[in-house]
Amino acid sequence: MVIYGVGLLAACFLAGIFLGDLLGALIGVQANVGGVGIAMLLLILYSDALVKRGRLKAPTRQGVIFWSAIYIPVIVAMAAKQNVVAALKGGPAAFTAGALAVVGCLALVPVISRIGGAGEPLPEAGEEDV
Question: What are the CA-CA distances from residue 68 to residues 24, 31, 73 (Å)?
Answer without folding.
Answer: 25, 25, 10
